[in-house]
Amino acid sequence: MIVRRRSAGDIIEARCTRCRDVLNHTIVAMVEERVVRVQCNTCGGQHNYHPPREEKKPVRQPAAGKTASPRPRKEAAPSAPALWEARMAELDPDQAIPYAMDAKLRAGILVSHPAFGLGVVTAVIKPNKAEILFREGTKLLRCAL
Ligand SMILES: [Zn+2]
Fold this sequence. Notes:
The chain has 145 residues and is mainly beta. Helices cover 8% and strands 37% of the residues.
């Protein structure tokens, strides 16, 4: 390891605790090869030596490995199109009833909506709402019970 020999009185870059910036400092005290105390050339304050590179550490890049993200990932819940496709595979599109506000719906029924297309009723919510899973997502629509 090649280290440029420094001595007290040399100018080095250090992080100033007062200016909160990396600035030129004058070495005040050294222990062997190590700078321990510096004087800020900007504010004149003396403080322990803080290497300038520490300033950049907080900008931490996520590690390449998956271990770096303990947060729950979104893909835990299947997306609406995937759910929809799974349900459609079980049902016969010819059995779909046209959606109407007075349609009598119940869970598991296949409906055909003029705007949203085919959907499956996932729940009927009293008094007159049905939760229907369409390709683009779940919609709460009016229905008759
Ligand atoms: Zn300073």
